[in-house]
Amino acid sequence: MPGRVPHNLKTTPFHARTAPLIQGQTWRRWSGYAVASAYDWTHDREYSSIRNAAALFDVSPLHKYRITGRDAARLLDRMVTRNVLKAQVGQVQYTTWCDAQGKVIDDGTISRLKENEFRLSSAEPNFRWLHLNAFGLEVAIEDISDSLGALALQGPLSRTVLNEAADQPVDALKYFRVMDNRIAGVDIQVSRTGYTGDLGYELWIPAAQALEVWDALTAAGRNYGLAPDGIWALDVARIEAGLVMLDVDYHSSHRAMIEPQKSSPFELSLDWTVTFDKGPYNGRKALAAEKARGPLWRFVGVEIDWDSFESLHVAHDLAPALPSVPWRSSIPLYREGRQVGYASSGCWSPLLKKYLALAHLQAPHFATGTQLEIEITVEHQRRRAHARVSRLPFYDPPRKKA
Amino acid sequence: MTRVFDSIVIGGGVDGLVAATVLARSGSTVLLVEAQPELGGTFREIEFATGFRAAPLAPELGHVDPRVLEATGAVLPVAMTPDPVVVSIGQGEPLLLRRSIAATAAGLARHSAKDAAAWPAFSARMHALAGFLAELYRAAPIQLEATGLDDYLLLARLGRKFRGLGRSNMVELLRALPMPLADLLDDSLESEPLKGMLAAIGVADLCQGPASGGTAINFLHRHVGAAPGVFGDRLRLQSGGGALIKALVDRARAAGVTIESGATARKLQVTDDRVTGLQLASGEEIRCRSVISSLDPHASLLELLDPVHLDPEFIARVRNIRYRGVTSIVLLALDGLPAIRGHEAARTGTILIAPSMRYVERAYDASKYGRVSEEPVVELRFPSVLQSNLAPAGRHIATLRVQYTPYRLREGDWDATRDAVAERAIAAVERHVPGFSEHIRHRAVLTPPDLEARFGLREGAVSRGELALDQMLFMRPVAGASRYATPMTGLFLCGAGTHPGHGMTGLSGLHAAHAARPR
Amino acid sequence: MGNQYDAIVIGGGHNGLVNAAYLARAGRKVVVLERRHLLGGAAVSEQIFPGYTFSVYSYVVSLLRPEIIRDLELPRHGMQILPLESSVTPLPDGDYFAAWNDSDLTRRELYRHSAMDADAYVEFGRLMHHMARSVKPFLGMIPPDPTSLAPGDLMGLLKLGGHLRSLGAERFHALYKLMTMSSADYLDEWFEFGALKATKSASGIIGTFMGPRSPGSAYVLLHHYMGEIDGAFRAWGFCKGGNGTISNAIAAAARAAGATLRTEAAVKQVLVRHGRTTGVVLESGEEFQAPIVVSGLDARRTYLDLVESRELPDELLEQVRRFRFRGSSGKVNLALSELPDFTCMPGVGAHHRGAFSISPSVEYLERAYDDAKYGEFSRRPYMDIVFPSMIDPDMAPPGKHVASIFVQYVPYQINGGWTDAKREAFGDAVIDTLAEYAPNLKSAILHRQVLTPADIEKTTGLSEGNIFQGELALQQLFFLRPAARWASYRTPIRGYYQCGSSTHPGGGVMGAPGRLAAQRILADA
């Protein structure tokens, strides 16, 4: 028990394989783990593997909880905004969960592994919140974040790679379903889920045998352009897919310092995750009231008008300068000179050839097609480029669900 | 055929009876259900040995605000006023707390001339401060977010009352609220027997010693409704607490309340986020528009109600309520009355063993570590001296209130400790009343777990939620439910666990009925 | 008339110096009269043993008001605050609990002990942040008297009422709980890991005569978070050169503004004529004249020692007499040949640049209190230990070290009275307890200085050795500090003011009373 002073962040179960690959030493923090921003010096190749071949992400820093017991479904159902009681075994649900005021605490996926066994994955720690919700219920909650590694295998060839590596074919695995499988003799679970908006899978792997699975996957992927991918490439893909990110696009209501920093599922445009066709759950009353009233904010896509963007640069005799990596900061958005919202993340989409942003807009300025201006800095001067509210996702290939 | 009432009141103690009566008198149809075969709650008498009865938790009936009587139409049965009120023994000459301030002061002179001189001013000041608390208790607690006209009127009334204290007492009140009782007493008094007596009275049923902050308020709380200079005794009835219950039951029946004893509430029925009925242990489901529960807040909110209806943060608040019962009651059947060194009159009042503040503090220390006090604070009474029907002719009963005996023991269990509590308490009495134990023919011990099992007191806490500054007023039982309404529409709370708390007999029932009355 | 001034400040402690600096900056001719041979009061650095410099009494800094640092340009006058990087609580079973200056590392460490607490810690920190912000306006204002109908007081109360309402119900209730609960109960609502609760609640008992289970001990938890919201420095810091450097920097600022600073000038009495002060007379007989006299001493000395009681109303005298001091903490300062090697974290490392807290459980603290409650020093005391030489190498000769050990409880009123033998027995109890966690300690000690509350009183003049010039208990705060009606830095004697930690907002090396008193004096002029 006596220990050394811990000077380093935690490392994931795949660290022994990923560490030697990071050429630029672009380490970053993710939930207390050290992970790669990119393996190459830039993320270009990694991004194209997502949309063109297959990409392998180490997503082990996700928080993972195993919930079992007679009331396991009731616990999750009273906590989240979707109807968990209706989920079938083998089904995965993406959902938000809220506080009593209907403000989002976190979002994540719930996998019904057995009748009375669920796995919740989330961005923030939720151990205490699960326990607070479990009062009076017969459940066991286990934090399996450290014992369970996770890989995301994403891209048009991900199914091919997985079929090559896994004992059971995954062809029949439908979108947002989970199955047991085996790779390199290791019992794992495969879910048809991801954070790229493309065809893809997430693999749930015992930490102790993580490397065997990694090796088998990378071997199987050799002929299919499989590339290990870092956070930058992931960020581009998830912005194209219009997927919201905690701590970037919104703050957990448990972490927000002031009320305006909190968001409801409606304000995040996640209406489809909120159902009233179920029993009592946290925030239900507030959400029903908000639904009746209509949300004050919406989370939308914004396309920056290229001509306008270019002309602001040309005025300084410059070529348009695009951000080299996706950005995560707050950029004001205006309509007819008045600020009506802010963008919270953005990037250049190499696929769509568009400069994209994800943004929060106040009512009534969030209708698709609304003309906006976005603040950009050109040669140390703040300017406003034309932009337009766009439907999300920006990119949605049929193969995602096919 | 499903029965339907406007309101169902759970619990047939004083607060439940008052709430039911007030609601019925305002025109509602009311059902009152009591789990025990008898009504009375903590005022209930039990037979602890053949022919020997006692009301273990009701040596005195607290403060009955005139409004309670007015609202129910009840008439207070004949009261009695033992004098001396308290006789403190254990160090030197017994110390007598008399009804008259002058008489107490005269007796004090033998202990301390300074205290004898200080007593009248001390008594007057404590009375003034407790008087302000009484004013606070006369209505539902004021809230920070108060906005209504009623709220402002209440605020104005309290402001006037506060100003009425005069500058010096205003300061004293604000100063006393967070203070250790020991400091409050040290400020005015010097004699250890006197301070020990007042300290024991002030920390009664509290899992704190007099040196702990926030104990002065408990002392003042227990003085609300008492005459100046009288501590540890407010209302005692010639025929015991049962007489008050009987008077209230009569008024409830007269008002049309349906009373059912032996009926245990099991589960609240909820439809569309509001209470629509109550299921009994018998399986019967009764429909209603509101339920007023006088059970403790934990039972009312977290056991009767399916927790999925409540915000987890709110549940956490309810779970954080501190109960921490520390009191045990020893009931003794006596073959006669022991002699008390020339103070036979003491046998009508309370005999207290708490000879110094340090004694009380040391007794408390044990409970911090989950142990029973080696030398406990003991209150001894002989209720049968005045209420002869409690024992067969010629026989008597004695009740010993013993503190500190924590609900949770660090080592061993209560079955193995129960006798030790009785023996230590009896030994403490025997030391100062020689020959006392020879009269004992039978004994029964009610430890905190016993009080929980027999009287439904969570953790054996008579207070139904420790009376501390953070669990009083707008924080009682928890923030967000202090005005009797709860986050569950149609569920209301009353009882000692709600404002104004233990000893303010019937007031919470009255306030809750007002909150629950259909508008 | 060489001794004619606009204002005389009695006592060269940090508050007196702050007060003098502000008055001098406003153009007043000010003299500070300090009894000792050096300035600083309880914030002094001294070479107790040749080559070894100690912050003899107060030893860390967190609460020094950032506006004072900026106004008086203290960094320009030599003050430099260095961060204390961590806090380690060694545990009896050989393990430890540590809080690092990195939230990921701290979470990882906490998670090792309790997954629930690791989650709760972040939310707790957020709440404390809010609470610290909620009380900040109280700290920065001259307290209004709620029993008064004077327009100024009513306005102040209205302002406070408005502030409380603006918090909203949720934060108001949280603040109310924090102000009224015991730290043990408060932390029980949040955490389950004993050493975490103990280490946090220890900050709630410092300088008080209460145990962690006594209601009223919770709100001091806030102090730990106060520094952060001001953006001045994170949590606790250490002043380069010891806390005397802070005093010297303030003194330099005062001097630069024209103030005269006199040491070895013990004031015997404040001169009063017709209810108005005219100056002071020293023990030496020397007289100083000024229409303004400001006492930086504690309330007992300010009212009972320096002026004739007939000059004061009985009602005030009674309040001052019952103002409670009850010093409960002591200091052990060590010169060391090597650093203590803690069994729980072997070797010399980053952890020696932070604090060590001997607070393994709430029950441990409560038992330590029990000893003191009955008039003995804690046989196994709570300790807060830092090694200043690890942060500032100038504090000890190369390769050698100094340790500063804050100890509680050690009562001023000890059974039988303090003797040299008892002081050493107390020192032994401290060393014996610490050596259980760091066995090489005893052989590493070159010199030791043991200070009981009685010693602190004797040297610094702090009544009963209370480090806050009076207990920081709710009934002695705000408009009651030190006495109702006289919490606005004025006294009943015209021209006589108070500016020590006995006044709002109280103790710690904060400087706020000195500054607020100066504001009052300048506004009254």
Describe this structure in words.
The complex is a heterotrimer of chains A (402), B (519) and C (525). Chain A has 3 domains: 15-59 and 147-229, Gyrase A, domain 2; 63-143, 2-Layer Sandwich (Alpha-Beta Plaits); 259-263 and 296-398, Elongation Factor Tu (Ef-tu), domain 3 (Beta Barrel). Chain A has 9 helices and 19 strands. Chain A has helices spanning 15-18, 44-52, 72-79, 127-133, 158-165, 210-221, 231-240, 284-293, 306-314, and strands at residues 27-30, 33-36, 54-58, 63-68, 92-98, 104-114, 117-122, 140-143, 148-154, 178-183, 186-191, 200-206, 226-229, 297-304, 331-335, 338-349, 354-362, 371-378, 381-390. In chain A, the strands form 4 sheets. A 6-stranded mixed sheet of chain A has the order 10-11-12-9-3-13. In chain A, a hairpin with a 2-residue loop joins strand 15 (331-335) and strand 16. Chain B is α/β, with parallel strands linked by helices. In chain B, 35% of the residues lie in helices and 16% in strands. Chain B is built from 16 helices and 17 strands. In chain B, strand 5 (86-89) and strand 6 (95-97) form a beta hairpin. In chain C, helix 4 (115-139) crosses helix 8 (223-229). The mean pLDDT of chain C is 94. By secondary structure, chain C is α/β, with parallel strands linked by helices. Chain C contains 17 helices and 19 strands. Chain C folds into 3 domains: 7-46 and 53-82 and 241-324 and 467-524, FAD/NAD(P)-binding domain (3-Layer(bba) Sandwich); 101-229, no CATH class; 326-460.
Main traits of this protein?
B: Guanine Nucleotide Dissociation Inhibitor, domain 2; 3 domains; 16 helices; 35% helix; 16% strand; C: 525 residues; alpha/beta; FAD/NAD(P)-binding domain; 5-stranded parallel sheet; 19 strands; globular
Counting DSSP E segments of at least 2 residues, the number of strands of chain A comes to: 19
Oligomer: heterotrimer
* Strand order in the sheet with the most strands of chain A: 10-11-12-9-3-13
CATH superfamily of the largest domain in chain B: FAD/NAD(P)-binding domain
| Proper CATH architecture of the largest domain in chain B | 3-Layer(bba) Sandwich
Query: What helical percentage do the residues of chain B reach?
Result: 25-40%
How would you state the average pLDDT of chain A, rounded?
96
Please give the most extensive interface between any two protein chains, plus how many residues each contributes.
B-C, 38 and 39 residues
Series of H and E elements of chain A: HEEHEEHEEEHEEHEEEHEHHEHEEEEE
The overall number of domains of chain B is: 3
Which superfamily, in CATH terms, is the homologous superfamily of the largest domain in chain A? Probable tRNA modification gtpase trme, domain 1
Backbone structural class of chain A? alpha+beta
- Say how many strands of chain B there are: 17
Individual helix count of chain B = 16
Strand content of chain B: 15-25%
Question: Any idea what the radius of gyration of chain B is?
Answer: 22 Å
The CATH C-level name of the largest domain in chain A is Alpha Beta
How far do the termini of chain A sit from each other? 51 Å
